[in-house]
Amino acid sequence: MLDALTLVTGVAALLLAAWCGWAAYRDQPTKDWHFIGMAVVSLLALVQLVIGIVALARGEKPDQGTTIFVAYLLGALACVPAAAFMSLAERTRWGSVTVAAGGVVLAVLEVRLFDIWGG
Amino acid sequence: MATTEDKPARTRLIGGPGMLLVWFYGVMVVGAVSRSVYQIATEFDRAPLAYALSAAAGVVYGFITYTLVRGGEKARRAALVCCAAELAGVLIVGTWTLVEPSAFPDATVWSDYGMGYVFIPVLLPLSAMYWLRRARTVTP
Questions:
Q1: Is the pLDDT of residue B82 over 70?
Q2: Which of chain A's residues have a Cβ under 8 Å away from the Cβ of B120?
Q3: What ipTM score was computed for the predicted complex, to two decimals?
Q4: What is the percent of chain B with per-residue pLDDT over 90, rounded to a whole number?
Q5: Per residue, what are the HEC states of chain A?
Q6: What is the secondary structure of B2-62 as a DSSP string?
Q7: Which residue, A115, A83, A64, is CA-closest to A13?
Q8: How many independent structural domains does chain A possess?
Q9: Which B residues in the span 41-60 are in contact with A, Cβ-Cβ below 8 Å?
Q10: Interface with chain B: mutation pick from A105, A106, A112, A115, highest number of B CBs within 10 Å
Q11: What is the mean pLDDT of residues B75-81?
Q12: pTM, 2 dp
């Protein structure tokens, strides 16, 4: 369950990165539709956090330790919203680049989460 | 960000590409600080030098992030100095880890020139210094 969600979140993050990268390439700031995309990706990260905590509560143990696992889940949740706020403050193509970078960072976090959980 | 708007005289360092820099520095702060706090708290004896260096890197990243957000000529200069220190740190620690791996039982943020972080630690100070130098010429 967690593995599938990790994969989906990672792919969604990369799609978001590509989408915002495209906006940046066309010299556009992030628009409403982009923010809906960011909300979807953030929601996936939130669901992942909840499922991760439920898995921990049921006594399952991540391979590389509970603290690191929870820290990465929280980081994954905060990642895209933080980039979204920064793109609100920066209404140029560079705001779009920032969200694209946020998507890539989230994808990296998902790969790490997969390793930490022990795939 | 309210402070930069209150005083228009202060050079804004987070416009345009600066925002992207703040993002990457922010990510590195969270990465380096949380990593070193965890490692120092749980297994400091295993590789004290490596973990202390990661913590130092986190502090430097934190300070640069703060100066970028704050803006102004003084902050710009302070950020430039810290970026130079950061670059020197990456180069020295990177070389050190390659020449004498035995001193580092575990990796630091700056091991192998930041290879574990897709070389962001070595690319970031270079792009930041480029950006900070350009920010000066924009100022009246």
A1: yes
A2: none
A3: 0.92
A4: 61
A5: CHHHHHHHHHHHHHHHHHHHHHHHHCCCCCCHHHHHHHHHHHHHHHHHHHHHHHHHHCCCCCCCCHHHHHHHHHHHHHHHHHHHHHHHHCCCHHHHHHHHHHHHHHHHHHHHHHHHHCC
A6: HHHHH-TTSPPSSSTHHHHHHHHHHHHHHHHHHHHHHHHHHHGGGSHHHHHHHHHHHHHHH
A7: A83
A8: 1
A9: 42
A10: A105
A11: 93
A12: 0.91
- For the residues B103-112, what does the mean pLDDT come to? 88
Of the residues A64, A90, A108, the best mutation for testing chain B's interface (the one with the most B CB atoms within 10 Å of its CB) is A90
Instruction: Measure CB to CB from residue B34 to each of A71, A83, A97 and give the nearest one.
Output: A71
Tokens 């994808």, residue?
A: A107
Q: What average pLDDT does range A73-88 have in this prediction?
A: 96
Name the pLDDT band for B139 (thresholds 50, 70, 90). Answer: low
- Contact in structure between B109 and B121 (CB atoms under 8 Å): yes
Residue A38, pLDDT > 50, answer yes
pLDDT digits (tens, 9 = 90+) for B4-58: 444 455 778 888 899 999 999 999 999 999 999 999 999 999 999 999 999 999 9
Quote the domain boundaries for residue A47. Answer: 2-117
Give the minimum alpha-carbon distance from B109 to chain A in angstroms, rounded to a whole number: 16
Residue A105 in contact with partner chain B when CB distance is under 8 A: yes
